[in-house]
Every structure is written in structure tokens, then in C-alpha cells.
Amino acid sequence: MAKYLAIFNDTIDEIEINGFVVMTEKDVETYEEMASSITWPFVYALGEDELEYSSGDDLLSRIEFKEITAEEAKTFKRLFNNEFGVFIGEAFLAEVIGDEEDDNEFEDGYDEEDYDDDSKYYDDDLDDTY
Asked: Which backbone phi and psi does 82 adopt, to 5 degrees?
């Protein structure tokens, strides 16, 4: 199975942020599908700074997928344990997707009629005098 070097490159205040990770062909496909499914803006916190993206496609535009040989893959594994620097991984993308689904779940389940009449939360039988 082919191996790929996913190279990430972005900037914060004119400082280059770089990293890479070794992926299989299946990993690349999964990563691209996850990122492409994000159609809303999101932020990746990096210390006190943030990388802002308009969508997953915006993030993908900052990643280059380069096919590498088996020997190169072994070298990256030996020297870097298959990753180095900053790389926005699948776990973070899953969080972004999950956060949006959680937001939509609330919005979809919100019934305005349930919140229009506050009187149902009060017991009319209580004496209002103190």
C-alpha cells in the first residue's frame, strides 16, 4: 500500500507553522473526506495563537500530500515516529464535526412554543404574599 507524506504549512503573524505526518492511502482519503465535510469556519488553537479556517477545504489548501517510497517511510518512522511539528489531525477534525453536529442537534430540537409561556413553570396555587 502506498504511503504519503502530508505536509502542513501555514503562518501566524508572519511566523511559519509547519509539520508533517506519514499516512497510508486510506488515511489520506479519510482525512480529505472529513476535512471536505466541514463547510463552516473553525479555529485551531496553537498556544495563545489561533489558526483560522473558513472551511475544511481552506485547511486542505495548506496541506500537500506527497507519495513516498517504502524506504522513505521507514526513515520517517525511525527518525520522527511518523510525525513532526504541527499537523491538524483527524481527531481534531472529528471534534470540529462533532461540535457542529451538537450545535445543530440543539437547534433542530428547539421548540419555540416550549419556551414562550413561562407560566407553566410556576405553580398558581402558591400564595404570592409573604
From this structure: 75, 5
Domain that holds residue 64: 3-107
Does the residue 38 lie in any domain? Answer: yes
How many independent structural domains does the chain possess? 1
Mean pLDDT, contiguous 10-residue spans, the chain (130 residues): 95 94 97 97 93 97 98 97 96 91 55 48 51
Instruction: Output Rg (C-alpha) for the chain, integer angstroms.
Output: 23
